Amino acid sequence: MLYIDDDEGLRRLVARAMARRGYEVATAGDGASGVAMARERRFDLIAIDHYMPGLDGLETLAQVQALPDPPPVVYVTGSDEAPVAIAALKSGAVDYVVKAVGDDFFDLLAQSFDAALEKVRLAAANAAIERELREANARLETLLREVDHRVANSLQLVSAFVNMQAMATADEGARRALADTQHRIEAVAAVHRALYTADSADSVALDGYLATLVEGLGQSYGAERRVTGVTLDAEPVTVAADRAVSIGIIVTELVSNAVKYAYRERDPGPVCVSLAREADGGILVRVSDEGCGLPPDGASEGTGLGMRVVQAMARSLRGTFGSDTPPSGTCFSLRFAG
């Protein structure tokens, strides 16, 4: 440690007393000399007296604090002056000690040194732990992105196999069932692709994800000329990855149903998907068309598997799912907490 004080006799007493308590002490007779020593040599701790000619204690403290990676400083005053102590602590001192007669001063000085060094040790340990946690989180995020990348690639491969099987199948019903399966796989794969490229490893920008999903559905169904297009009107919303999967499957099923049944007996029309955050913080997803509307009895057309999937996904979101029939067409709505 370094003890800076203009009182030569006290410097010697401090050096001997601190040596008996296990400290190796260097001394300086004024602030300028002390700062110069601190520049040339690394000290674990510095004690600075307040009243000194030339640079006083606060000026010396300021210059020590300006050093690269400065050591902790204990401020020493000749009287119990609260404004001086407060000024020193505000300037960066970790503690202050009032000079006293006899061993009481040295005991207080040793206690202050011990506390200051323990504080530095704890700060270094906390910094090391935080650094290790940041590094571990970075490794985990890298691993999760690699997993998402591999899962997305694997799902893409499965989707390609399903598509090949559909093309090789003569039965029209089987081909449509396989096409529906392929769209469900694509909905899940799109989430993993979004996670792989996102800043967060566990959340998805739902508006961006739905934009990718809707674009793919539009390209897939546009070739069948059953609808004029699939569009999206979305506000910025971020959700957890598992929720994005459920929402993506719901949108996929509802768009698929609209393509199959909305314009069956009329000219093709649009299918619209919307995403909005409501005033209470909840999230609203709608899929609507301008087609023939629901059957009078409300019964599902086809096998009903798609609607069962939708209802199961809505329950997983703890949301509410329903439909209404506007002047023309059908509108399905999903509401869940944001």
From TrEMBL:
Q: Does the keyword ATP-binding apply?
A: yes
SMART domains annotated for this entry?
HATPase_c, REC
Give the Histidine kinase domain ranges. Answer: 250-338
User: What PANTHER family does the record point to?
Assistant: ETHYLENE RESPONSE SENSOR PROTEIN, TWO-COMPONENT SYSTEM SENSOR PROTEIN
Q: Coiled-coil intervals in this record?
A: 119-150
InterPro entries in the record? CheY-like_superfamily, HATPase_C_sf, HATPase_dom, His_kinase_dom, Sig_transdc_His_kin-like_C, Sig_transdc_His_kin_sub2_dim/P, Sig_transdc_resp-reg_receiver
EC number in record? 2.7.13.3
Is Translocase given among the entry's keywords? no
State any GO BP term from the record: phosphorelay signal transduction system
Q: Which residues carry this modification: 4-aspartylphosphate?
A: D49
Task: Write the record's keywords in alphabetical order, separated by commas.
Answer: ATP-binding, Coiled coil, Kinase, Nucleotide-binding, Phosphoprotein, Transferase
Q: Which SUPFAM superfamilies match?
A: ATPase domain of HSP90 chaperone/DNA topoisomerase II/histidine kinase, CheY-like
Q: Which reaction does it catalyse?
A: ATP + protein L-histidine = ADP + protein N-phospho-L-histidine
Which terms in the Gene Ontology molecular function aspect does this entry carry? ATP binding; protein histidine kinase activity
Annotated Pfam families: HATPase_c, HisKA_2, Response_reg
- UniProt domain Response regulatory: residue ranges: 1-114
Q: What is this protein called?
A: histidine kinase
